[in-house]
């Protein structure tokens, strides 16, 4: 296949666009063991598959049908909606050929969440869109783990047209430009629970963009983007009663000490082992490329 100079796999490849056209890219499940009170929205990040190759895409999206957060649910949720942006562009083209922009995505989720209290969850790009949609729908709680607060600055990068092609191609799109900045949507900041890494330059900048908003902030001494603490802590954090979660707001934590406090020694050791295994896996993957 002949590729033009502007070709980018995650936005222009036949395999991605075929799934965008034919796959809903959302999954709805119900937990009928709890009261029908809460609907939880789980937004996958741009790490839904990696690297940006046909092999990785096929394995994660087609073969495994992967959605982030599928294994980390909020227990009081009756209706669980998992979503992914397979073009990996901050949901600027929605999730599929019918729900193909943020406004349609908001309208779709407004209909799906009608009659429920709403909770939204996401990390990185998933945290970015969870904040926009959660605020638009009046969510009771929004969990953002190193979610971006603005993506307009990415256009200043020298490789913007190839790394973030949809952002670049829509830089003058008046309909989409408001969705480049979460500040355009924040009206109830106290519903946002924002976890960020204090040793990651990009996450520092993204947090700084939010400093004039009275959101609940949880800082972690790590350079790790995405979840800034051991992932074995997630089930506890996502299900912590809000009064207990608010007590931790404004504090700065070391991930290991935080884990010991939240889940104890045994689960912390297990979490470290899992994290090390993931690091080794990424190194081996890079060596194979």
CATH topology name, in short, is Rossmann fold
Distance, first to last CA: 21 Å
Mean pLDDT: 94
Main beta-sheet strand count, sense and barrel state: 8 strands, mixed
Total domains: 1
Shape: globular
Provide a count of the helices: 12
Helical proportion, percent range: 25-40%
**Beta strand count:** 8
Structure classification: alpha/beta
CATH architecture: 3-Layer(aba) Sandwich
Radius of gyration: 19 Å
* Sequence stretches where pLDDT stays below 50 over 5 or more residues: none
CATH class: Alpha Beta
Q: Order of SSEs, N→C?
A: HHEEHEHEHEHHEHEHHEHH
Strand order of the largest sheet: 1-3-2-4-5-6-7-8
Report strand %.
Answer: 5-15%
Brief rundown of the structure:
The protein is an alpha/beta fold and 289 residues long.
Task: Describe what this molecule looks like in 3D.
- This protein has 289 residues and is of the alpha/beta class.
- The protein has one domain (9-263): Rossmann fold (3-Layer(aba) Sandwich).
- It is built from twelve helices and eight strands.
- The chain has an eight-stranded mixed β-sheet.
- β2 (38-43), α3 and β3 form a beta-alpha-beta unit.
- α11 crosses α12.
- The longest helix is centred in the last third of the chain and has 24 residues, at 265-288.
- The protein is globular, with a radius of gyration of 19 Å.
- The protein starts with 8 loop residues before the first helix and ends with a helix.
- The mean pLDDT is 94.
